[in-house]
């Protein structure tokens, strides 16, 4: 993430410099630099995603795992104004899929609804258990962990398999909320 933020900062700096040039060779040179940084970032992400996906597959093979559970991401969700726009999670997901298929490991998609707010130790769900972006503390059993680690354990152990985002509880609840709002007007 840090490298991607640095690439973005460099491109923004070049865009600001580009505004001050009206034309000529200076403008063309700055435009080529912006495109060069965009290509560098893309190459970096692709290489890093290959590294991560290979390690995930090696880990699965080393632990004799028959399947890998992932959250279902579509390209739209992976790029829509979130932290994911700075990182190629969708690309990583695709790489894990084809490398797992090559090794005979199934990739299953699970419903990510409340995975970061449910205790991975006792299964308790309550609002407010994820105290901060990075801290999870169960109100029932007192289990304390990094929130992302807790969510990843829940994803790994989940059996709530889905094949499309329409099957997700989050998606269904957001549709219910939208229809309730529309009925008020």
UniProtKB/TrEMBL annotation:
<dbReference type="InterPro" id="IPR010095">
    <property type="entry name" value="Cas12f1-like_TNB"/>
</dbReference>
<dbReference type="GO" id="GO:0003677">
    <property type="term" value="F:DNA binding"/>
</dbReference>
<dbReference type="Pfam" id="PF07282">
    <property type="entry name" value="Cas12f1-like_TNB"/>
</dbReference>
<feature type="domain" description="Cas12f1-like TNB">
    <location>
        <begin position="89"/>
        <end position="155"/>
    </location>
</feature>
<protein>
    <submittedName>
        <fullName>Transposase</fullName>
    </submittedName>
</protein>
<keyword id="KW-0238">DNA-binding</keyword>
<dbReference type="InterPro" id="IPR051399">
    <property type="entry name" value="RNA-guided_DNA_endo/Transpos"/>
</dbReference>
């Amino acid at each position: 993430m840090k490298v991607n933020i640095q690439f973005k900062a460099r491109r923004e700096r070049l865009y600001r410099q580009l505004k001050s040039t009206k034309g000529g060779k200076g403008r063309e040179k700055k435009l080529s630099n912006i495109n060069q940084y965009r290509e560098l970032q893309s190459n970096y992400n692709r290489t890093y995603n290959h590294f991560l996906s290979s390690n995930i597959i090696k880990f699965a093979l080393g632990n004799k795992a028959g399947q890998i559970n992932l959250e279902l991401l579509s390209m739209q969700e992976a790029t829509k104004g979130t932290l994911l726009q700075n990182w190629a999670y969708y690309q990583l997901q695709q790489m894990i899929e084809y490398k797992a298929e090559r090794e005979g490991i199934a990739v299953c998609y699970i419903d990510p609804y409340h995975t970061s707010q449910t205790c991975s130790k006792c299964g308790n769900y309550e609002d407010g258990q994820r105290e901060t972006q990075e801290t999870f503390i169960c109100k029932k059993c007192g289990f304390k962990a990094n929130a992302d680690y807790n969510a990843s354990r829940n994803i790994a152990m989940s059996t709530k398999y889905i094949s499309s985002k329409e099957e997700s509880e989050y998606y269904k609840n957001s549709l219910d909320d939208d229809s309730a709002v529309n009925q008020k007007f």
